[in-house]
Amino acid sequence: MAKKQMKLGAFFMLPGHHAVAWRHPDAKADHVLNFDFIKEQALTAERGKFDMVFLADGVAAGAESKVFGQSSSVPFEPFTLLSAIAAVTKNIGIVGTVSTTYNEPFNVARKFASLDHLSNGRAGWNVVTSGGKEAASNFGLKEEPLHAQRYERAHEFVDVVKQLWDSWEDNAIVFNQETGQYADASKVHTLNYEGKYLSVGGPLNIARPVQGHPVVVQAGSSEAGKELAARTAEVIFTAWQTLEEAQDFYRDVKGRMAKYGRNPDELKIMPGVYPIVGQTLEEAETKRQQLLDLIPESLGVARLSRQLGVDLAGYPVDGPLPELPDVSQINGGKSRFQLLKDLAERENLTIRQLYQNIAGARGHREIIGTPEQIADQLEDWFDHGAADGFNIMPPVFPTGLNDFVDYVIPELQKRGLFREEYTGTTLRENLELQRPENQFSKEAVTH
Amino acid sequence: MAKKQMKLGAFFMLPGHHAVAWRHPDAKADHVLNFDFIKEQALTAERGKFDMVFLADGVAAGAESKVFGQSSSVPFEPFTLLSAIAAVTKNIGIVGTVSTTYNEPFNVARKFASLDHLSNGRAGWNVVTSGGKEAASNFGLKEEPLHAQRYERAHEFVDVVKQLWDSWEDNAIVFNQETGQYADASKVHTLNYEGKYLSVGGPLNIARPVQGHPVVVQAGSSEAGKELAARTAEVIFTAWQTLEEAQDFYRDVKGRMAKYGRNPDELKIMPGVYPIVGQTLEEAETKRQQLLDLIPESLGVARLSRQLGVDLAGYPVDGPLPELPDVSQINGGKSRFQLLKDLAERENLTIRQLYQNIAGARGHREIIGTPEQIADQLEDWFDHGAADGFNIMPPVFPTGLNDFVDYVIPELQKRGLFREEYTGTTLRENLELQRPENQFSKEAVTH
């Protein structure tokens, strides 16, 4: 039997995942908003046989941050960018982040269905609930909605979107030019969904997506996030520093699936990984130091403060963290808070060490070394129940992505851990996920 | 002095503008949701030097219509499709319809800004207010919002979107890798907009669009629509049957601009035109009859009923229209109602004649004949104060578009009425529209 293979995402964040990637000599002023450059990156990822390009998103410029002017925060909006990438690629999946808090389910269902048709079945939706006061203010709210309310709405939202995707059965379009029947109206369904937060009539005004449902991805790792993922997600993008944490999470979430009638294989867990690749370990270490030296102290402290939700500005940067509140008092970013708190305690880090530690990987796992050493670290987690694959976060584009594609992927392929060619035509097929049945046509069979 | 030249839009509606274009032998089952086919159409339009591809939109499947199964209603969502078209074209403008009633201004401003960067300055936004009860039900409403309220919200919406586009000044991004200054925070502006319908903090999370503002297009021709256009629009897409009506409208709207401090040249009026091109007039007439013969009677009556907002099902199809209500009692589609009522009275048409008359062109002007005859009719309106250009609505793709590009455009070019090559790099430049100043940096200069 062929060896089980890992799934890989290429997490695009231009000009790179490092906190101040834009200051790196490989980054150029136009790398953020130049489609030709991003197209080249997408083609590189496709050459590397990545399962997907992954785009994060936020709905605020971060203008209230004290270090606003020091970081880059004006990327393309994911939908427009993903559609353009779809038009110039053939095989790679295209996964975008869209908020359930600041959008209408009809619009979201429709855009992902459209993207799925446009790409012949390569679309995926990363579901987020978008915390933050500045984001709220951009949508007419004085305060951000509470974490619990955002997640309640998210459950409804995902349910409605899936119903909208199913509102046209696969064979609803007849296209009989002779008789004049375009669609079989009995295979097109209204929903009349009425929930606590949402009410949607339907049907959607686009045919069922090629994949049935675009692949549903999630990133939150709080209790509410894990429950939403166990019930609805097919891919989880998550952040862990140690094998043990990652194994616990993997077991925990997969263990929650049975009560929703789901099989653990229906969900692929893909921790984020920030790789620094060298021809030697020494070269990789030098690259890492070069990146850390780019971070201004004020920026490092401010970013860490924001990620923790605690202002560290008054504390000595080479001293320890102050006493932190309990995670239950944090509204949003709960899992990130816990991870940073644990990391600082475990490794006894100063504020500077902690911000340097997370500056690039933003709480994700940093792996450094030769292609063989990088592959060893990925294989270790993959073989020991911590991951079904990884979301790769290059420190700086294009070099970080090129290094991974040119040196690490061939090493993974040599070990039989990664595909040599795309095996499916859809994202779902490449991820070895089943095409979902249509909930409305199933009912029709039952009655 | 060079002769003034007309502007041309290619109105994409797949598989064509005729009511049952999908039944025509040139239409194939996959023409609606096959990007490769649409890409080919976009390249044809670009070969024809069209100013823009134009996409209409609606946010309901129309499933409550009695003739739902007979017409095609499952196109791509405009944003995803336009972004993909942007990625595979170089010069042509890309204009999409987005509702101000069922979207958030932050999301809309951001997507058009993103599309404008993606296309290097070729984006345009057709502002609509989306009537209809089925649309309302898809967004949690029991009834459609009143016409007047939709337009009040639209005024606010366009204002806020323009402010968001201006929230980053053109030179706000510094990108000084040496000093670590990415952006000049003093050139990034919060809005704190508080209106009757909308409240938006800002700034936007993307740099100012390449064109300053993507081109603002409008289609409504009611009193409220004309006022919104005179105040905010740069292109109007409109529907008129006779030269006199079109001249009246042209004079009326351009006459309203002065009170908003605008010059008539800042607005291009482009009536829709449905051309049927033959090598002889007889061939064109045959093509027309072939199209009309495709329309089932039930569909013709139902479509006319919907466009009028009056159910005609009980009346003899070869008899006259019944007594119609006054236009003031119509909520939405006011200008379409008036146009159809006037047309039926003027030409003394039966129900069948009226639905056949509008089946293809949907109330727009049908022009039939040889390339020379088509060019004559366009030139007539262009020269006599009725139009600055036209939005071309091919009956069926690809043949209807090919005919126009291969035969009519060369005739217009021969007469000096249309460009031989693109003269600008942005849509705004091709339309001869000024790049707007930034409202926030103007203030900065004043104080």
UniProtKB/TrEMBL annotation, chains A, B:
**Could you tell me the EC number(s) of this protein?**
1.-.-.-
InterPro entries per UniProt: Diverse_substr_monoxygenases, Luciferase-like_dom, Luciferase-like_sf, NTA_MOA
Gene3D superfamilies, alphabetically?
Luciferase-like domain
Which stretches make up the Luciferase-like domain? Answer: 26-386
Q: Which molecular function terms from Gene Ontology are attached?
A: oxidoreductase activity
User: Which is one Pfam family of this protein?
Assistant: Bac_luciferase
Q: Does the keyword Flavoprotein apply?
A: yes
Alphabetical keyword list = Flavoprotein, FMN, Monooxygenase, Oxidoreductase
Q: Which family does it belong to?
A: Belongs to the NtaA/SnaA/DszA monooxygenase family.
Q: What is this protein called?
A: LLM class flavin-dependent oxidoreductase
